[in-house]
Amino acid sequence: MKPIWFFVGLILLAMGGLIFLTGIYLLIVPSARETVLSNIHPNIWWGIIMMVFGGIMFIKTRKQTV
Amino acid sequence: MEAIGLTSVDWVIILIYFSFVIGIGFYLKRFTKSQEDFFLAGRKNSSWVAGLAFLSANLGALELLGMTGNTFKYGMYVAHFYWIGAIPAMLFLGIFMMPFYYSSKISSIPGYLKLRFDEKTRVLNGIAFAFMTLLVSGINLYAMALVLHTFLGWNWNVSMWASAITVASYVTLSGLMSAIFTEIIQFFLIWFGLFLVSIMGIIEIGSVDQILSRLPQSMNTLWSTSGNPMQNGMLVHWSGIVLGLGFVLSFGYWTTDFLVVQRAFSAKDLRSARMTPLLASFFKMALPFIVILAGLIAIALSNDPKSGFKLLQDGGQVNYDSALPLLIKRYYPSGLVGLGITALLAGFMAGQAGNISAFNTVWTYDIYKSVLNKKASDAHLLWMGRVSTIAGVILSLGTAYWAKSFPSIMDYMQAIFSWVNAPLFATMLLGMFVWWITPTGAFWGLITGMLSSFLMWMGVKFHWFNESIITMSSVQSDMAANFWRAWWAWLICFSITLVISLFTKKKPKEELVGLVKGLTKIEHDRNIPFVKRPAFVAIISFVIFIILNIIFW
After folding, report:
1. Helices (DSSP H) in B34-118: which residue ranges?
2. Interface with chain B: mutation pick from A31, A35, A40, A60, highest number of B CBs within 10 Å
3. Which of B228, B332, B387, B443 pairs as cysteine with B337 (C-beta 3.0–4.6 A)?
4. What's the pLDDT at B476?
5. CATH number of domain containing B109
6. Model-wide pTM > 0.80
7. CB B489 within 8 A of CB B423
8. ipTM associated with this complex
9. B12 contacts in A (CB within 8 Å)?
10. Distance, in angstroms, between B174 CA and closest chain A CA?
11. A16-65: per-residue pLDDT in tens?
């Protein structure tokens, strides 16, 4: 059985990647829905943090079984 | 409030989560072959897995909407639920109680009552716990429906039924193991999905100090205004916090509520089981930096007319539970909105799954097998576990509609805990540490304690008597009444159990070996270096707990 950390890494990697890419898209094509502090582009840096965290968990556990 | 229009990215993120939890249910089904796999996840989890699940089982609607909403209502005093209202009890469980629970190889908390006292005390607690679990499970459904209604404008009924069916699916497939897996995924999604709210709030307002400076003094301290109930947002005296929340409600919940303790039972050995609540205590202490801070940010923004931030109104009453969803709407652009909603959904669904997985275990072992079908086979109990999962989800749907009538989710939760957990803690404490407590004393003490708590709640709700009789104060809040009601229920149960035990037949000492401190030889930890012992971890946790209380005094 795969360890739970594998699944956690996978879901954070997938979601973080999507959020990061959305942030890049919104940088080029700004959204009509204005949010407070949208000028600091939270989805870009938060997406990167999620991807790094999820990527580490995924890579370290991808060959493990429990 | 105008519903947020979700973009396709938000929908994809929500879809990823739903696919994961259903997929994990199917993936784990192949490893769920026996009743021990289904009800106790095969007893093979590490302390980290069990510890995060232990914490996450409690991290449902209660911690998210309820606590953020209550912070808006009561101020920083709500942090007491995370610190004095949790940490001492979690450490006590890991150090003193877990050896008796885990070593007796029981499947549930009522199972311990059967070994220590008798069958009738076990069944009484089993029924009370099953009833409480279904009520609490309803809260998760209600909270989830609130989020979907607030954000997406979805119909209440559709929201509740859709989430209930999802939870029923994956818990029915693989029981506690899938509940634990989804709880741990939920833990990470909550941190990544909601901690950003606090970060954005700090960036907008300037600093934590500036947030606190925008609040009245009754709301921005932990203890310094607790000497006079008139001076703090919760209208409670420090003695009510210490006795009601810090002692009775906290110890009653964290040391006897099978919902959380079940996660420790899934650990692979005694040391891992003892480490389960100790590791969880560190993460518990960190949670105020999501929920309490978000609530304080909401107050600070509300006090500033230029911010344009205002909580929702429901029938002329402030809807405190809308604070967190409104902050997500304020700060999160497309993509992050999907993550924020997913974090909330994950919390609600994992909270509900936790309750349902505890319900199916107590129903199957402590009511069905104990009373209705004593000769049930392993395969039949596994089948019953799956059937009771579906039945539990359907029953909790009914309680969700009742939860809607309370002004704040947390008040409702604490009312339920004060009926069941507060007296049970007295029974457990006496049973585990005093050998001469008798089965008759425990049974009648438990019944009297539960009834007295319920009657006190009914008495205030229907104006049979004034709440000040319970709180011993001219001013009170619902929360203060909950704390004091829990204390009185505990004291009544404790006293009745002691008095009856003095005059009734005691169990022979040899039957209590392994169940009662003083009659059991303590052999664990002997060959482990001090820094690796659970006691050392508990000391570190306790020191951090003290420091946090001093910082925010």
Report:
1. 35-40, 47-56, 67-74, 87-92, 98-103, 109-116
2. A35
3. B332
4. 67
5. 1.20.1730.10
6. yes
7. yes
8. 0.96
9. 18
10. 13
11. 999 999 999 999 988 877 888 888 999 999 999 999 999 999 999 998 88
Please report residues of A whose CB lies closer than 8 A to that of B31. 1
- Mean pLDDT of all residues in chain B? 86
Residue A28 to chain B, least CA–CA distance (Å): 14
Say whether pLDDT at B263 is over 80.
yes
Task: Report the gap between the CA of A43 and the closest CA in chain B (Å).
Answer: 6
A26 and B181: CB-CB below 8 Å? no
Q: Which is more confidently placed, B402 or B192? A: B192
pLDDT of B4 over the 70 cut: no
| Contact: A19, B5; criterion CB under 8 Å | no
Domain count, chain B: 1
Nearest chain A Cα to B21, which residue?
Answer: A7
Q: Which domain holds residue B409?
A: 8-217+230-315+323-551
Residues 6+ apart with CB under 8 A from B55: B187, B280, B283, B284
Task: Determine, yes or no, domain membership for B405.
Answer: yes
Confirm whether B224 is domain-assigned.
no
**Domain-embedded: residue B3:** no
Cβ atoms of residues B354 and B169 within 8 Å: no
**Which of A7, A38, A49 shows the shortest C-beta gap to B181?**
A7
Round to whole Å and give the CA distance between B375 and B373. Answer: 6
Q: What is the C-alpha to C-alpha distance for residues B495 and B73, in angstroms, rounded to an integer?
A: 35
Whether pLDDT at B16 is above 90 = yes
